[in-house]
Every structure is written in C-alpha cells, then in structure tokens.
UniProtKB/TrEMBL annotation:
GO terms for cellular component: cytosol; oxoglutarate dehydrogenase complex. Pathway: Amino-acid degradation; L-lysine degradation via saccharopine pathway; glutaryl-CoA from L-lysine: step 6/6. This is Dihydrolipoyllysine-residue succinyltransferase component of 2-oxoglutarate dehydrogenase complex. Residues 216-253 form the Peripheral subunit-binding (PSBD) domain. Residues 2-77, 109-184 form the Lipoyl-binding domain. Transmembrane segments: none annotated. GO terms for biological process: L-lysine catabolic process to acetyl-CoA via saccharopine; tricarboxylic acid cycle. InterPro entries: 2-oxoA_DH_lipoyl-BS, 2-oxoacid_dehydrogenase, 2-oxoacid_DH_actylTfrase, Biotin_lipoyl, CAT-like_dom_sf, E3-bd_dom_sf, PSBD, Single_hybrid_motif. The keyword Manganese does not apply.
Length: 511
C-alpha cells in the first residue's frame, strides 16, 4: 500500500509552488514528519513532511517544476528500506546465494507515474514514447509525451537506470497517478542510449545534439528532423541549455534549411522520377485532445454568445516612435525588449476600467463584474492555440507586462505551461498581425465577454489636418457578447484603446 505525497495548502491566495529541492531520493528510508521536499512560493518557502514512515517509492515532479496545490509529488511504500531488507533475509537465509535472489530488489525499481496536470484535468492520452524496454536513461531524460485537453507535457525520468517495463502504450488514456513505466536503478548507464542491440539503429535515426550543447533534441523535434533529413548543425536550439525543440525545426524548415544534397541526390537519381500516383493523396490523423477541446470551445462560444464585432483603426506612429527612441535604454534597464504587446495590454486595462461590462461575464441570470484585469494573450504553438494569462495586468508597468508575456511565450513554445498559467482570464488579446493578417473577427474565449484582435501594421494614405500623408495604420477588431455589452459600450472601449495608443503618454500618466 502506497501513501501519496501531495502539495499542501499554502495559503488562501497561493495556488502554485516551485520544487526547490528534494531531501530524499527514491529508495531512501524515511520517517513520519521527516522533511522530504522544499517548496518555494512567491511569498514563502515551506518544507513538506513525510505523511507516513516507509520507503520513498517514487518522485513524480523534479526540482524546478511548478506544481499546483494538491498535485502529486511522490509516493511512499510501507516499511523502511532496512526493515524490508531484514525481512527478506529472514525469509530466505538458505537461498541467499541462489540465482532466484539475483532479481532487482523492490527498492531498486522506481515507478514513473502520470503527473497531475491541474485541478480540472482528470485524464491524459499517452503520446509517443522516447524509450523502449531495455533502454538505459539518465535522470531528466524525456520518457514519454502526454496530451491533455489543455496542453501537452513531457514526462522526464525521475532517476537514472534501465527501463524494465512500459505499462501504458501509445494512445492509451491514463489518470493522474497511473503507472506509466518502471526503471531499475541498479543498472545505471553513463548516457541516455538504447540497449546495445538497438544502438546502431538509434544512431542512424536520432540526430545528435546541436553544436554548443550536450542536450539531445526533444523527441518531437528529433522525429521532424529525421523526416526532413535535417542535421543538428542546421537547427538552432531555443530550449533549456540549447535543446532543439519542434518549433526550432519548423522555423529552420521555413527559413529554407535543407538536407545536404550530396547523399540524397544519387539515390534519388537511381530511383528515377516518382510517379504522382505513388504519393498518398490524403492523410487521416487523429485530433489531439488539445485540438478537440479548442474546436469544442470555439463552437460553444459561437452557439452560446450573441457575438458581434466592431472595428476601428489606430495610427501606430506615436507608439513606434516612442519604441524606437527608448528601446535600447528599455532593454538595458529591464532586460527585455520593448514590444507592442505591453502598450496594447496597458491600453486595454485602462479601457476595461472605464467600460467594466467588457470585463464581466454572464453566470445564469447574473452578471459578474471583475474588479481586476487578468489579460489572456493568445499564442499559437505547434500543438495548437493556447491562451496564457497575465494576472493583474492593471497593476503592472509596461516593463512588467513585457517580462511576463515573454516568460509565458517561452513556456508555451516549450510546452511547459501549467493549468495555473491558462485559467482565470477576464479579457483576451489576439495578435494575428504576426502572421500578416490585415483584418479578422476573433472568436470569444468563453466565458469572457470581449476579445481584441490586433492586426498587421501597414502604411496607408491618411488625411491629417487636410493633408494626405502616409501613416502606419492597424485595424483593431473587438468581438463582444451583445447579451452583456451594448454597442455604445463596445465602441467606447475601442475608441479608448485607440486614444491611448495614439497618445501613449496617457498610459504613463494613467489618463
């Protein structure tokens, strides 16, 4: 019987914590109330004591990970390591040297369990395994990718050793705490590599680590590099310690990176032209849970809300001039680049304070007005659209907003967003301009009542003081729920955003 170790309640306003350090490792004997792990929050550092005596059976989350209150940290097996060894010896004194006793001891087998992905996530789908039974792995090597209806996450190896069992196959649905695989810690290799019998095959298919880093590419990136015949030196890694991520491979392909032609050209020539009829004309791919949820939520928003969109345009010249004048000084002082999202987020929070209906939501026959501004920023990733939230953006400076958006953007691209990062938003900003969109009608992010669509900045002839001049203009689109927001309020909101951006000093002076 195993006892679960979970994140304790950390205070009324604290919903998550970061794993600072583990004091024990799997297989260690522990006593009740003995400190096991140290957690850091934005307010305090706390130690989590052992809820029972026994042996630390498994560690689910590693140091540096962020977890929510109630999340599973690890499990304790009944009986201490010493007690278990004594019991085994007492039962089998006469067989101590027999071959049957050469099997790994129970405390050498570490269970890798499905981690908790958030309070509202009850199951996950097992994606592609990066290892096979018999492979030797190092601690923190990626074992498998899990997909939930909110996000995708990679499960790292909690310890070094040999994979002796895979309990959940690709495509299986598992609940938090379910067994994924087992690792025998008595066999520890110096590198994350398959068993000898499979080493040659792996050497042919898995790209080496990119130059300047000892981190191998992420599994999804490795697969895409192999499919496109790309080598590690053709892709620049943006992940932790320079690791190549799937997004890096996509960017490399988009920038025109191709495999060396010397090896592929002769083989292609020897095969001759490939008939068009030999190529598949269509491909059926199962939707991920995240994509299914995106599709369902967007359709629900259309079916439920009385959605309407109003448009305006803004002269981005003043913001661009201010940005050009101070961008170097801003980056030197704050350590982050001055972009447009900081200005837009602050302009939105000012307008939300003046038109609170756009920041409200409908609950049955009630309207819930929010006295705070949690602004969601829509981010497109290779897994789908996610909306991380900048909390209390109305209380932040432009520099603080830029830092938080940069941090959330990196976590989104690396697949590290947690549930706490994507819940609780009161309004959303979607920037289609980064893809070249000139105008669009964004769909509401239910249960929110408003979403602002940004678009491409394009120079156009404008009439200014009776003269035709060329100005950098952007179309703005506000989609809103007409059940709660009247047309007058929607237009007023959009005009206030326009005024703030065309006179950015208003943002500094809080006008």
């Amino acid at each position: 019987m195993a006892t679960e170790i979970r994140v304790p309640t950390l205070g009324e306003s604290v919903s998550e914590a970061t794993i600072a350090q583990w004091f024990k490792k799997p297989g260690d004997a522990i006593s009740v109330d003995e400190p096991l792990v140290e957690l850091e929050t934005d307010k305090v550092t706390v130690e989590v004591p052992a809820p029972a005596s026994g042996t630390l059976e498994s560690i689910v989350v590693k140091e540096g990970d962020t977890v929510e209150v109630g999340a599973l940290l690890g499990q304790i097996a009944e009986g201490g390591a010493a007690g278990a060894s004594a019991s085994t010896a007492a039962k089998g004194d006469t067989k101590a040297g027999s071959p049957e006793q050469q099997a790994p001891a129970a405390d050498q087998i570490v269970d890798v369990l499905t981690p908790s992905a958030g309070e509202s996530v009850t199951e996950a789908e097992v994606g592609s395994w990066s290892v096979n039974v018999g492979d030797v792995v190092k601690a923190d090597d990626t074992l498998v990718e899990l997909e939930t209806d909110k996000a995708a996450q990679e499960v790292p190896a909690p310890v070094a050793g040999k994979v002796v069992k895979i309990a959940a196959e690709t495509g299986a649905t598992v609940e938090p705490g379910a067994l994924l695989c087992q690792i025998d810690t008595s066999i520890v290799g110096g590198a994350s590599a398959p068993a000898k019998s499979e080493a040659p095959q792996a050497a042919e298919t898995a790209p080496a680590a990119s130059p300047g880093t000892d981190m191998p590419p992420a599994p999804s990136a490795s697969k895409m590099m192999a499919e496109n015949n790309l080598s590690a030196d053709q892709v620049s890694g943006s992940g932790k310690r320079g690791q190549v991520l799937k997004g890096d491979v996509i960017n490399a392909i988009a920038s025109g990176a191709t495999a060396p032609s010397s090896a592929s050209a002769p083989s292609a020539a020897s095969r001759g032209p490939v008939a068009a009829e030999d190529e598949p004309r269509e491909e059926r791919v199962r939707m991920t849970k995240l994509r299914q949820t995106i599709a369902r939520r967007l359709k629900d928003a259309q079916n439920t809300a009385a959605m309407l969109t109003t448009y305006n345009e803004v002269d981005m010249g003043p913001v661009m001039e201010l940005r050009k004048q101070y961008k170097d000084l801003f980056e030197k002082k704050h350590g982050v680049k001055l972009g447009f999202m900081g200005f837009f987020t602050k302009a939105v929070t000012h307008a939300l304070k003046e038109v609170p209906a756009v920041n409200a939501e409908i609950d049955g026959t009630d309207i819930i007005y929010k006295n705070f501004c949690h602004v969601g920023v829509a981010v497109g990733t290779d897994k789908g659209l996610v909306v991380p939230v900048v909390r209390d953006a109305d209380q932040m400076s432009i520099a603080e907003v830029e830092k938080e958006i940069g941090n959330l953007g990196r976590k989104a691209r690396d697949g590290k967003l947690g549930m706490a990062d994507m819940t609780g938003g009161t309004f959303t900003i979607s920037n289609g301009g980064v893809y070249g969109s000139l105008m669009s009608s964004p769909i509401l992010n239910a249960p929110q009542s408003g979403i602002l669509g940004m678009h491409k900045i394009q120079e156009r002839p404008m009439a200014v003081n009776g003269q035709v001049v060329i100005r950098p203009m952007m179309y703005l689109a506000l989609s809103y729920d007409h059940r709660i927001v009247d047309g007058k309020e929607a237009v007023t909101f959009l005009v206030r955003v326009k005024e703030s951006l065309e006179d950015p000093q208003r943002l500094v002076l809080d006008l």
